[in-house]
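Practice record 12: protein with iron/sulfur cluster.
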Amino acid sequence: MEGYGGSILYIDLTDGSFKKLEMTKELSSKYLGGEGVAVKIFTDHVNPKIDPFDQRNVIVIAPGLLTGLPVPTASKTAFVSKSPLTGTIAESIMGGGIGAQMKAAGLDAIAIIGKSKNPALLSIDDDLVRFENASPYWGMFTRDAAKAIKEDYGDFVVATIGPAGESLVRYACIECEDRQAGRAGLGAVFGSKNLKAIAIRGSKDITIYDPDRLIHLALGWQESMEKSNVFIEDTKYGSGEFLEWVNAERGVFPTKNWQEGVFNERKKIDPYYWAPKYAIKNKACFACTKACGKLFVVRDGPYAGTVLDGIEYETLYALGSQCGNPDIEALARANELCDQYGIDTISTGVVIGFVMELVEKGLIDEEELGFDCRFGIAEAVPKMVELIGRRDGLGALFGEGVLRISKTIGRGCEDYAMHVKGMEPPAYDVRGMKGMGLGFMTSSRGACHLRSGFYALDLTGRFWRFSGVDRLSPIGKGEAVKLMEDFMMVYDCLGVCKFSRSFFKIEGFIELLDTAIGKSFKEDDLLLIGERINNLKQLFNLGAGVGRESYRLPKRITHEPIPAGVSKGAVLTVEEAEKMLSDYFIARGWDENGFPSKEKLAQLGLG
Ligand code: SF4
């Protein structure tokens, strides 16, 4: 099959067995690749009711259909499993080289079940599959483990967890080449299976339907990308380049555990300030020609020796404004520690900001914590990351995430526990971005900006088919969020970075697919595939007991208006949220409790 590796590898860690099955035309035409294929394999094999740490949980890894092909920004690989953080189906999309190596080894997906008795390293060298002893690497930081595995086994691409995944921090991530499958705790699923790492390399050619035309198209996309302002700003300053604008022009940059929507000290964490001083070169995801990452180096002072690939917009919020932290060097150190322990920076920062508020309100004893931990104390941020990464003392509780911390501590702190479905939110204050607020609610993995990508519409007022979007109005958001979720799913099936969304749009994908796999799609075909996958995920979540009450936004968003800035007074009321959710369910063809109708399932080929 043109564009594909050709096989799906099933691994059982319990008895060290494996089998390969063919990648079928049906799977390709109904689910494309990447997240779509991973969701289909996952939902076929997992009972939604099992505990995420049950060895019957499966983690599926699938490169996007275009990943590994010469297409600008097509670098992504989907990881799908039942999340230890949210109890929902969850995907985490990574830009490391694992997916391209999978394709070159002839694999369109790897599905891993069971639990190894001892720490395991799964090694895949083209057709050779081996289960190696990972005991020497257990306990190592992600970077050290990847380096040691390469020294011992050769020039493989390595995806590994750190100590946090091993000790089941519920928001642990998987790291590969300084890129993370960051959200939803899928690193802890690796840990629960005693799987430290996967080392993979492939040498096979991927057949392309019309290789000359694909190169011609790719060069055209690259040329138009390079002419755009987005390309110029992103490659100079990274994803945080619009931080000042979100603060000053929109007033929706969450600050101090979402008590505020503007970070007054933002200039100190703005990449326009730090990139010229600390970024020594650009870094990219695998084979990406729009390198928006930065190699960030701290040369002196208390954090000298800090070296990382970053710092992304979301992290500037999570470990910066969310904690009231204006110290870019402390922030960088905390970011590096997150990467090394293997924990998601967004969830980590939201947990730290929440703990700071609990300390300030006298609900956590600073003496028990062992250091000053209040908003604005920069050195507390890296200290907290170490506590969580090691699960030391109170770090054991903090590694459970905001929802579980709030349930353990109680005494009213649930009111300012920032999460949806147990997932800590990203950097968009949805009191002033109502479509994005609905996107937080409806995202299958909990508070997430990427499922719908609706922040682009709320912040700019237009994107793709939409124009004149009023960020403060709940009207029309149900239908719009539904459509955006189905469209964004296409990106995750193809493995194309959403930072290219101003270039490719759906017409670009149609052309690329025609050329790469020789199949003609219409816009509606692709959107229907996105819709099918989103419905499949919904069926899983319903089976897992995720009901309408789980969609609720945090009380701070529905009851406390943004206190200052351009969005002063904005709040997303319960009534608005409920109305938008009902509109969304109607647009999806679901009933009031989120159950798809028989007709809808039949239309999607899921009945
Ligand atoms: S644009 Fe940035 S995030 Fe996207 S693939 Fe390229 S380097 Fe990675």
